[in-house]
From TrEMBL:
Transmembrane segments: none annotated. Residues 7-169 form the Glycosyltransferase 2-like domain. It comes from Novosphingobium kalidii. This is Glycosyltransferase. Belongs to the glycosyltransferase 2 family. The keyword Hydrolase does not apply.
Amino acid sequence: MANPAICVAMSVYNGERFLATAIESVLAQTFGDFRFLIVDDGSYDATRSILCDYQKADPRVCPIIRENRGLVASLNEMLAASDAPIIARMDADDICQPERFERQLAFLAAHPDHGVVGSWSEDIGENGEPIFRTGADHPLTHEDVLCAIEAGRHVICHPAAMYRRDVVMSVGGYHAAFRHCEDYDLWLRLASVTKLANIPERLLRYRRYDGQVSARHATEQQLGTAVAQLAWRERQAGKPDPTADLHRLPSIDQLDALFNQEGISRRVREQVALGLIYSDAAMRGDGFDLLVQHLREGGRRNGMWRTVVRLLRFGEPTRALRLAATLASAPAH
């Protein structure tokens, strides 16, 4: 096929359960001039055979089947392979509304100064059931996006994003150091060179379930988000970005040295620890030890006794007792 208007970029790793539904929602778009790049990132389930079946049925489906390299490598590979000026992101467990591409492409055509447009999303559960949203929707205008960045809030839902390939390539694509929050780091870097916005329509059905990446890697995601915010502030102040050439983020204890500022490590530990207290996966994993260290350093403890109760509900009585003992003995901030 001739060069398409859009390349759809999806990476999948052992995603057989939801993959067909995600693919079909893309193929059913009202705007159909696209090439559908799908990286099979080393899956060992039925992902490969599903992709081959769809490739036979629709020539727009272009699988890239190879060994596992991780999401960031897959995203940059698809950026390099794209022969379209516009990239539409999609995840293998979500569902596009039929008019998603049409709406977003029209927005970019009407706003040439915008490099990225997302949309609001509808949360669904593991089996497609509606989930009641409690948080705020993503910001609409670029000015709202900048305010959201300053406040540390979400900016754009990654699988709902559509962006200009040349703008993303101009800032170096996705950075490997920000694994599991590579999109947030990218939005913050792009916000300095182009405008970002969201369409106030729920053009993506976003699936939430225990097995998804954001649930399994909550601690690493929170740390990366905190470091991306620090790097954003350095760039805003006209200083060099100390994360620009990193392939892996340092530990929290090394952040003072990285940013050449005393107290950064302690502030990040507090931000990450307090951001993890509602995550059962994090409290069952390494996030718990980070929280305990935060409290032993005299960090904020508001609401921590409720976390003890949540640990009991999570089925973690030993950790609940340990947290209670830490609260009873740790110095107050």
